[in-house]
Amino acid sequence: MNWNLDDLYLGFDETYQKDLVKMNELMDQYIKHIESPMKDDVSYIEGYLTLSETMTKLVRTLASYASLRMSTDVTNQEALVYMSKIQHIGRKATAQNVAFTRYLKTVDLDLLSKKSSLIKHYLFNLMKEQEEAIHLLSEKEEVLYSKLSELGSSSWGQLQSVLTSNVNVNYRDQVITLPEVRNLAYEKDPSVRKDAYEAELKAYEVIEDAVSLALSNIKREVNTMNELRGYQSALDKTLLQSNMTKKTLDAMLNAMKDYRVHFANYLKEKAKYLGYKGSLPFYEMFAPVGKLEKTYTYDEAQELVKEGFYSYSDRLGDFAKKAFDNHWIDPFPKKGKRGGAFCSNQPQIKQSRILSNFTGSLSDCLTLAHELGHGYHGEVISHNSPLHWSYPMPLAETASIFCETIMNQHMLKTFKKPEERLSILENSLQGDTQVVIDILSRYFFETELFDKANGPVSKHQMKEMMTKAQKEAYLDGLDHEILHPYMWLNKGHYYSARLNFYNFPYAFGLLFGKGLYAQYLKDPMSFKEKYDDLLRVTTQADIVDVAKTMHIDVEDEQFWTDSLEMVKKDIDEVISLFHKVV
Asked: What are 414-434's pLDDT values in tens digits?
């Protein structure tokens, strides 16, 4: 079962070629508009916005098709060639983009917005661009970097993707893929989990030199460019990109650090439940507990997700049904397919595409719900204007975490026995631990990596930094002798020069989503009326203002503490159930 991409293109066929030519022509029109003598500010900016809308729709379709083809076959050279062609066309306007952004520094956008409904409509976008203008290099320098980055950080990122997608893992006299061996962490047999963990670590030894070099060079490039652009740090730039204040991040991180001890207690109790003395070995974090002996077929997982979504609303359930019925999902692992899961929203055709590596675990079912949550977010914003189709990283996880929470609560109502309840709650807690504590370790790791990345960073340093970060985040919850020193190698989020610190947005999404779910429980009807509006505005305002639409103050640590208290209630119940269920 593969996803159906026909509504994008039937292949790299005549239609695709014509659209590629059209993109090139549109880019020439755009360049001509920017370089033409300006009659007046309003018509100049309106022309820029109109052309940008048209190009956004076309480029998203062309690039998404090639990218999606590559994600299920990272060796697809044809797709790689077309991605390169699209990037080449896009680079043609680098100098003009710089010129226009510099021009924005010279105008009063508030005044112009009173003269033009189009400028008023996109005022938030324009003001963000105006703010970023102070970090631009000269036009020649921006053009040069845009060309060199394709040969630098972009290529290093592709190297990590290719190597991890094609590495052979020798597991019990079989050769399997990396996603397959990582999925064995959820198996019932403890010997399988341990052997899979050891096979995974052994496989990384074959590619660790090349991948560590890739990561080191990407982060060095980021540091170099940020210094030239005048950013204080990579984090400084990420917060600006995320429409997020440092006060918000600090409030959330401080609350997360305060609650580490509760997660550590849960992990130690899980270790005791599984028969260990002391702390939990890393490879047992995803060990199933309780007596929910179910392994799901893909058809059963679809029904489970639809039932959960319909328990919230018909619109959400109908969306999931549409995604399954129309084959928007590529569900199963295979050789050459990238690991993990993602959702690629396609608002220009009012659809989404979802990649997963489904093997039948309860966690895989929740992953489907999570990615469909992204898709639902895409469904809502597909009714926005084209330049309001993108939301910042922290808000990207809002709908996905909310949908996961809906699924968990639905399943808890379905399964009543203590041993079943333990399975559901503890599985949910596994995810919460990853998104709060493991994300914290990734944040610690990346912070130190950037501090060291003014020079080469070796694979040995990376492994040391990762285990140090895990100890700091998990405290004594995990066995310090059995950690995972290669978590930097298998997480693609580290390998982008454009998106750094792609870790704390997940924690934001989880805790923001938990806070939203608490509001839903208080007044379901009123919440449903406001929720889609919140998702719609995520593309049009900064995070503080988006949260205010639901009367939430994200700069107040108390909000994050209240959300973490919801997780702590699950921790307390799971620990209690550990003692009751044998």
From this structure: 887 898 889 889 988 998 999
CA 291 centroid distance within chain: 32
Q: Does the residue 134 lie in any domain?
A: yes
Domain presence at residue 518: yes
8 A C-beta contact, residue 156 and residue 218: yes
DSSP per residue, 480-507: TTS--TTHHHH-GGGS-SSS---SHHHH
Residue 379's closest CA among 371, 89, 276, 568? Answer: 371
State which residues form the domain around 29: 14-144
* Distance, CA of 564 to CA of 557 (rounded, Å): 11
What 8-state DSSP symbol labels residue 7?
T
Q: What is the pLDDT of residues 291-314, one digit of tens each?
A: 876 789 999 999 999 999 999 999
Q: What angle do CA 306, 310, 314 make, to 5 degrees?
A: 120
The CATH number of the domain where 24 resides is what? 1.20.140.70
Inside any domain, residue 96: yes
The burial of 6, by beta-carbon neighbours within 10 Å (0-12 exposed, 13-18 middle, 19 or more buried), is given as: exposed
What pTM was computed for the model? 0.85
Domain boundary among 144, 175, 190: 144
* Residue 86 three-state SS: helix
Tell me if 174 is assigned to some domain: no
Q: Tally Cβ neighbours within 10 Å of residue 100.
A: 20
Q: Which amino acid is at 567?
A: V
Among the listed residues 248, 241, 188, 229, the one whose alpha carbon sits nearest the alpha carbon of residue 548: 248
